[in-house]
Design brief:
The chain is mainly α. It is built from 1 helix and 2 strands, in the order ββα. A two-stranded antiparallel sheet has the order 1-2. Its main location: membrane.
């Protein structure tokens, strides 16, 4: 009854889970880079923070 190629509890195969994880990590890195740039710009361009 149980399929050994599926990862519990998602029902994804190991390959599908690894692919999804790569996209998640890539998106998190992109978001973090954009957030760091926005924080740097807000710090340098805001007169009340100096």
């Amino acid at each position: 009854m149980s399929d050994e190629s599926k990862v519990w509890p998602t029902g994804l195969t190991v390959g599908e889970a690894e692919e999804l994880h790569r996209y998640l990590i890539s998106g998190t890195r992109t978001f973090g880079f954009i957030a760091a740039c926005a924080h740097f710009l807000a710090y340098t361009l805001s007169p009340w923070l100096k």
